Amino acid sequence: DVAKAINEYKRRKDLVYKYKKLTDQTFSDKISKLNLHSIRKKSSRIKGRLSTNFGIGLQMRDEQFEKEEAKFRHLERAVKVFLRSV
């Protein structure tokens, strides 16, 4: 749809203009671009990154993956032993 493509192009252009204006040199100009949604989004990303880095985040255990990994490690050791004996 041509109208949809034009609207999407204009929307992207407006977003780029909003965040990349050369006149936004002052701190207050940068703060004025922030809204509650962007602050929440950024803080949740930072919180997730910190919790992952410190090991606090929820980690799911995949038993099937652990079984397959154990098989792989066992085969890897067997191949190393075989190569040493050849």
From TrEMBL:
Organism, as annotated: Arion vulgaris
Stated name of the protein: Uncharacterized protein
GO MF terms held by the record: guanyl-nucleotide exchange factor activity
Coiled-coil residue windows: none
Gene3D superfamilies listed in its UniProt record: Arfaptin homology (AH) domain/BAR domain
Gene Ontology CC: cytoplasm
Gene (name only): ORF29901
InterPro entries in the record: AH/BAR_dom_sf, Dynamin-Rho_GEF
Transmembrane regions: none
